[in-house]
User: What shape does this take?
Amino acid sequence: MNVSPARLKSAGPDRLGRYYTQDRIGSFLVEQMTGPEPAAVLDLGAGGGSLSLAAMTRWSGAELITVDIDSFSRAKLRERFRDAVVRHSHIRADALRIDLPKLVSSSINSIDAAVCNPPFIIPKWRTEFGHIIEEAGFSSSISTLPDVDAALLFLAQNIRLMSKGGALGIVLPDSLVSSVKYRPFRRDLLARFYVEKAVRLPRNSFAKTDAQAHILVIRKNACSASAVVLQELNEGFEGRELMVSVEQAEDRLDFRYHAQRVAFSSIYRARTRRLSDITQVLTRGCFTSAEVKNSNYPVLHTTDIPEELCGCWCDISSFGKSQPASGSRFAIAEPGDVLVARVGRNLERKVIGVAKGYARLSDCVYKIRVAEAHRELLLKRLGSESGRVWLASQAYGVSAKQLTKSSLLAFPF
Ligand SMILES: C[S@@+](CC[C@H](N)C(=O)[O-])C[C@H]1O[C@@H](n2cnc3c(N)ncnc32)[C@H](O)[C@@H]1O
Assistant: This one.
């Protein structure tokens, strides 16, 4: 089977992360929040008001306070609420100002519920962000600074603004829920707050994006939980639940990851070796996507790996019939190697073996070399249904997913 060069696509994000929540997701988020009817509800980054309206539909007696930096937000909120919300104040401001509690307290004394769908962007670092994070109790997360997701800052700001015992329903990007970078944040969150529930959302939950997001329901009080309820909501809006320990939740707050870990535990228990035990080389290519586009010679990128060839030995000689005379900078795929996509929406379906030919690789492709005796079995296992499920459960990411080298090395072989 032949693999040959394909073309690349790209897309650009909105500067303020204005991807609005679909109404049914807004209602779902509010339904997850337990406890007595709040007196005041806060919505930071309220946008067009999907979450605010859902909250006010449920808690019609509450007072609403919305904040958004976007000058169009006020008119959008007015249009959406018309007469539906009686007591509403809107502040046009940067929600990440250190003095926001002062601004908000001029409208409302105490906030006992908050809803939030923050922008999924990484803002330019300001010193006050460090104070917001620290004051909210996420000081371990500071080691990952200064490129911190706005979502973490919005969460921290909500915590600062809420009164003790207050409930927060917040939409978070997959990175906060799954990535190694944010593990210290999850540790702090689980230790200091009561995480009532984490729900993995379907990809189409927001207008104009298919970002992978989750809802977290958090209560600001002294006692943390000993177990966390995880849920996955499918496209048909049906939910499946499971419970994990706090240590497991610290690893990931993602239903799918843990459900697959449980489902395949008997298969994987029988396999005592890891990929790391048999790997001679596990490396990735050196060409960035931009270099792939501008390169004078063909470079094998994830887009060149057809999903229908997953698990097959392929002829890649259209990229090169012999070993390129290049420096050691280039990871070259050669016969016998197994190639696995490192990045991509369906990376678990992009696993091939090289039967013939040579190729320079983009940095989105891993090359795995094992002894000849293991090659057939490795490709069979990585490309099998259970292998794909395993890869999918390890991959994380808001838009394109990614697979870390350490996760791949942990593949039960
Ligand atoms: C993902 S949208 C969510 C909007 C709305 N809450 C919803 O769920 O549909 C994020 C919102 O945050 C606002 N935003 C972005 N950066 C902000 C900032 N620094 N301060 C306040 N609002 C901000 C955007 O204008 C946008 O309305």
